[in-house]
């Protein structure tokens, strides 16, 4: 199957709806991908890139149905990674003397993968051109580290198409080829996921390369990537988006991720998140358990965040392995201009938190004070965590924090609010009087002043002795002291330790 791209250019690539893993299992593909190869038929016939090696047979068969393979004059390999040059061995078996245009570095990696040093390589550098007839040329632009040292882009004059290879692509599979034909939310999400997880370490090179290409002052009518869609509607939008992402990108967002042996560190994460929200309701806060959530999504949120909080239980005096793995990835991704802090629960030593703090500092984050809790956090410890969140929100605020009264945090007792140091220079604490008034208004009908209710400090679920919790065998009329120790909050699954008296 081929798809017409423009004039004498056709897509001859391969869709891969099923693929889930890339780079081993390091990159989870949630929307498949495509391996885009392009056939140009001017006076000369040119093939730009091939497809993943797993589709070699299908690719050659498809191509042979379109043209006599012997009529291919030139092959351009923009990048040697096997998802683009993978079908080269099968193709070169059919047309062994066809010249392959690529960078000097690509010869090393193509030979390293295919073991055919005798192939007819033609080395090109930035600015070199290849006449393909009908008044058109291919101009080559080296793009080292976008994505490998061998990477380059190829620009076709007259048609003004930039074959950008990995750059500006996405792991995204759709029956449509062009950017204006697909779901825009999916497209944007996959573009960001791709940049955040693959290209972030090379952001300074991205900026330099884009400015170099722009300095050529040539028209760009389409950007034909090697994965996902072809940008034909306002193609420079993705160039400008890359410039924004490459420039120490951050949103008013905080990402919290952790792993937790016994839920204790999770309780801390929840309370810290609530504390952030108390002080800065506008900031986006995302909380992830690294052992349960898609790692690449967490990294995408990290990319978008102004700061991250990383938590782990202490296990054998070190952090839990999935947290360590995330920190290794984050170190490699070389995020810039972001803040970070460590937290976690421990039993007899708190080595995990210290190690996380050190790793975050080494990875280039501006680190804030860490927070440790011994064993399962009790009510006081939960208040400390929440206060920690408030302080983080103030320290990391991107805007002046307005005096606001929380409307949905009735779990903050007046006493807890009064315990909170006020930092009027940066932000105002919630007004205790107003919180108390709201609490009374919200509950006075069902919770009289002398009620014996208890409230979960994590999710604000209220235990009313008059109702009990029949689902856990706690009959109506059961006082809190008689509720069994195995009781769990029905909303957040945490134990009795996190409950405090509900002040009506
Ligand atoms: Fe799509 Fe770097 O390969």
Descriptive notes:
This protein is an alpha/beta fold and 504 residues long. 32% of the residues lie in helices and 20% in strands. It contains 14 helices and 26 strands. The strands form six sheets. The protein has a seven-stranded mixed beta sheet. It has a six-stranded mixed beta sheet with strand order 12-13-14-15-16-17, with no helix packed on it. Mean pLDDT is 90; it is low at 404-445. MU-OXO-diiron is lined by residues 79, 81, 83-84, 147-148, 166, 226-227.
Outline the biggest β-sheet: 7 strands, mixed
Q: How many distinct beta strands? A: 26
Q: Estimate what percentage of residues fall within beta strands.
A: 15-25%
Low-pLDDT segments, ≥5 res: 404-445
Q: Class by helix and strand content?
A: alpha/beta
Gyration radius from CA atoms, angstroms: 29 Å
How far is it from the N-terminal to the C-terminal residue, by CA?
Answer: 69 Å
What share of the residues lie within helices? 25-40%
Principal-axes geometry comes out as elongated
Spatial order of the strands in the main sheet? 1-2-7-8-9-10-11
Helical segment count: 14
How would you name the oligomeric state of the polypeptide chains in this document?
Answer: single chain
Mean pLDDT: 90
Q: List the bound ligands.
A: MU-OXO-diiron
Protein name: Anaerobic nitric oxide reductase flavorubredoxin
Pfam families: Flavodoxin_1, ODP, Rubredoxin
Family: In the N-terminal section; belongs to the zinc metallo-hydrolase group 3 family.
Keywords: Cytoplasm, Electron transport, Flavoprotein, FMN, Iron, Metal-binding, Oxidoreductase, Transport
């Amino acid at each position: 199957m081929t798809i017409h791209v423009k004039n004498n250019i056709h897509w001859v690539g391969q869709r891969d709806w099923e693929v889930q893993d890339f780079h081993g299992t390091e990159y989870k593909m949630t929307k498949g991908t495509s391996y885009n190869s392009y056939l140009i038929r001017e006076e000369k016939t040119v093939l730009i890139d091939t497809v993943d090696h797993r589709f070699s047979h299908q690719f050659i068969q498809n191509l042979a149905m379109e043209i006599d393979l012997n009529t291919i004059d030139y092959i351009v390999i923009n990048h040697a990674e096997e998802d683009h040059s993978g079908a080269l061995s099968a193709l070169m078996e059919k047309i062994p003397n066809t010249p392959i245009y690529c960078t000097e570095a690509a010869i090393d990696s193509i030979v390293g993968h295919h073991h055919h040093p005798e192939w007819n390589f033609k080395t090109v550098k930035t600015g070199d051109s290849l006449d393909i007839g009908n008044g058109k040329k291919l101009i080559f632009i080296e793009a080292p580290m976008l994505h490998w040292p061998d990477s380059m882009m190829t620009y076709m004059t007259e048609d003004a198409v930039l074959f950008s290879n990995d750059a500006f692509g996405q792991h995204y599979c759709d029956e449509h080829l062009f950017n204006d034909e697909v779901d825009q939310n999916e497209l944007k999400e996959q573009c960001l996921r791709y940049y955040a997880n693959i290209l972030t370490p090379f952001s300074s090179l991205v900026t330099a390369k884009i400015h170099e290409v722009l300095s050529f002052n040539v028209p760009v009518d389409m950007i034909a990537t090697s994965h996902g869609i072809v940008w034909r509607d306002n193609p420079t939008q993705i160039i400008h988006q890359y410039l924004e992402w490459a420039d120490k990108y951050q949103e008013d967002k905080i990402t919290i991720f952790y792993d937790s042996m016994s839920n204790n560190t999770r309780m801390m994460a929840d309370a810290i998140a609530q504390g952030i929200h108390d002080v800065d309701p506008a900031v986006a806060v995302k909380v992830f358990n690294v052992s349960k959530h898609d790692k690449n999504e967490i990294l995408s949120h990290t990319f978008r965040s102004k700061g991250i909080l990383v938590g782990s239980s202490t296990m054998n005096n070190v952090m839990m392995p999935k947290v360590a793995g995330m920190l290794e990835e984050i170190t490699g991704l070389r995020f810039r201009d972001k803040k970070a802090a460590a937290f976690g629960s421990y039993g007899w030593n708190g080595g995990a938190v210290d190690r996380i703090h050190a790793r975050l500092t080494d990875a280039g984050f501006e680190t804030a004070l860490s927070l440790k809790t011994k064993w399962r956090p009790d009510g006081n410890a939960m208040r400390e965590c929440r206060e920690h969140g408030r302080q983080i929100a103030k320290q990391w605020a991107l805007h002046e924090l307005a005096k606001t009264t929380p409307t949905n945090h009735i779990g903050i007792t007046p006493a807890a609010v009064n315990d909170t140091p006020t930092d009027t220079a940066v932000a105002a604490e919630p007004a205790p009087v107003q919180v108390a008034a709201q609490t009374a208004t919200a509950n006075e009908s069902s919770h009289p002043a002398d009620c014996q209710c208890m409230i979960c400090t994590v999710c604000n679920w209220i235990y009313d002795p008059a109702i009990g919790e029949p689902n856990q065998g706690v009959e109506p009329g059961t006082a809190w002291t008689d509720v069994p120790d195995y009781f769990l909050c029905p909303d957040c699954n945490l134990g009795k330790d996190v409950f405090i008296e509900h002040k009506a």
